[in-house]
Design goal:
There is one protein chain. With 373 residues, this protein is α+β, with helices and mostly antiparallel strands. It has two domains: 41 residues; 312 residues, Glutamine Phosphoribosylpyrophosphate, subunit 1, domain 1 (4-Layer Sandwich). Helices cover 43% and strands 20% of the residues. The chain contains twelve helices and twelve strands. The strands form two sheets. The protein has an eight-stranded mixed sheet with strand order 4-3-2-6-5-1-11-12. A four-stranded antiparallel sheet has the order 7-8-9-10. Helix 1 runs antiparallel to helix 2, helix 4 runs antiparallel to helix 5 and helix 5 packs antiparallel against helix 6. It is globular and about 55 Å long. The protein starts with a helix and ends with a strand. The structure holds aspartic acid (ASP).
């Protein structure tokens, strides 16, 4: 503006010669200054545009798990293996399509988890394991990496898709975590259908509980610790998902029935933000599965993000540090799936297997179950 006024004044001849000369000098200095400024800023300008362009056609990706544990090829029939793989494919493809069409990572995570929650194959929603007294208590959590908002529910008994309620806790309440009857009361205010508990009955999970109870009995009624190999091998199956959307936003979610034979309203890591689920746009999104008590103590999901943030580790380095060193050092086992802000994926576990799948922006799909695949 100043430049225009000075030019105008100069040309209109209103100024005396000396003033004109002075103004010419100012003009010269001003142009040199503007020139420098332009040169300083010019490399930024195209890259800003490029950033925006990259965001709008940005990399995206998704990774899921269906639980880690003693999953051995020799214990698995071909048809069951095919069923697991088909369900993993169906779930991840649903999330992939949402991301591909520009949808949010939160949406992708929720819909992907819904498909696994509705399947009796996984220990979440429909296929939840049984508690000691023969009921099903469900836990779930979700986190938005863009805002660090989070929502969680624990010990709920009548909600078909716990991850949806966790999302509603995040988006429609002022709280982060709701438990039991209170959580279900909140669900009812939102119009959730209360499922009959029989919906969660599956023969396979019921038989697992009976086996564990028989095993307890054989040990003279003594409560068998979770460290008992028998229990250790029968407790996994949680589902989880981590995603990066085209807008650069990360999200993660986890849903579970917990551990077979759990009692006293035991709550594991799945609904604990930082242990079972964590997401932060600057680092990564993580969903855990495994022996919850240890994952809580090792603050697994947050620790992976923190190692990236404070130690400059890559996602893969951070994931193996926590899953291969820190958790086993405490005595725990399990795994995680995670994706970082650049779309790199980690599927790390220290058990014999982990149901897992990932899909990148190019649509490349990987589905695996066992360790050495
Ligand atoms: N982490 C879950 C829990 O401890 C169990 C699992 O991942 O299978 O409740």
């Amino acid at each position: 503006m100043t430049v225009i006024i000075v030019i105008f004044e100069y040309l209109s001849g209103k100024l005396k010669y000396r003033v004109k000369m002075k103004n010419l000098t100012y003009l010269f200095i001003l142009f040199v200054f503007l020139g420098c400024e332009y040169h300083e800023k010019s490399p930024e300008k195209p890259s800003n545009n490029l950033d925006n362009l990259q965001k709008s056609i940005g990399k995206f990706g998704i990774v899921i798990h269906g639980g880690a544990g003693t999953i051995l090829k020799e214990d698995m029939s071909d048809s069951l293996e095919a069923a697991y793989k088909a369900k993993l494919k169906e779930a991840i493809s649903a999330g992939y399509e949402i991301l591909k069409s520009g949808g949010s990572s939160l949406d992708a995570v929720t819909h992907t988890i819904n498909i696994m929650e509705d399947s009796p194959l996984f220990n979440a929603g429909k296929g939840a394991v049984f508690t000691h007294d023969g009921s099903n208590e469900l836990d779930a959590s979700i986190m938005d990496g863009a805002t660090l908002n989070a929502g969680a529910v624990a010990g709920i008994k009548h909600i078909k898709n716990p991850i949806n309620l966790a999302l509603d806790v995040m988006q429609k309440s002022e709280h982060v975590m709701l438990y039991g009857a209170g959580a279900e009361e909140f669900a009812q205010t939102l119009g959730y259908k209360m499922m009959d508990t029989s919906y969660f009955y599956t023969q396979k999970r019921y038989e697992s509980l009976q086996k564990v109870l028989r095993n307890e009995k054989e040990k003279n009624g003594k409560k068998v610790s979770f460290e008992d190999p028998f229990i250790k091998n029968s407790k996994f199956g949680t589902v989880g998902c981590a995603a990066l959307d085209k807008h650069g936003n990360l999200a993660a979610g986890t849903s579970t029935g917990g551990m077979t034979n759990k009692r006293w309203s035991r709550i594991g890591d799945a609904p604990i933000i930082g242990a079972g689920t964590y997401a932060k746009n600057a680092t990564c999104a993580v969903s855990s599965t495994g022996w919850g008590e240890y994952f809580i103590r090792a603050v697994v999901a947050y620790d992976i993000s923190a190692l990236m943030e404070y130690k400059g580790m890559t996602l893969q380095e951070a994931a193996s540090e926590v899953i291969q060193k820190k958790v086993p050092a405490l005595g725990g086992d399990g795994g995680i799936v995670a994706i970082d802000k650049d779309g790199n994926v980690a599927m790390e576990f220290n058990t014999a297997g982990m149901y897992r799948a990932t899909m990148n922006s190019e649509g490349e799909l990987v589905i695996k179950i066992y360790k050495d695949e």
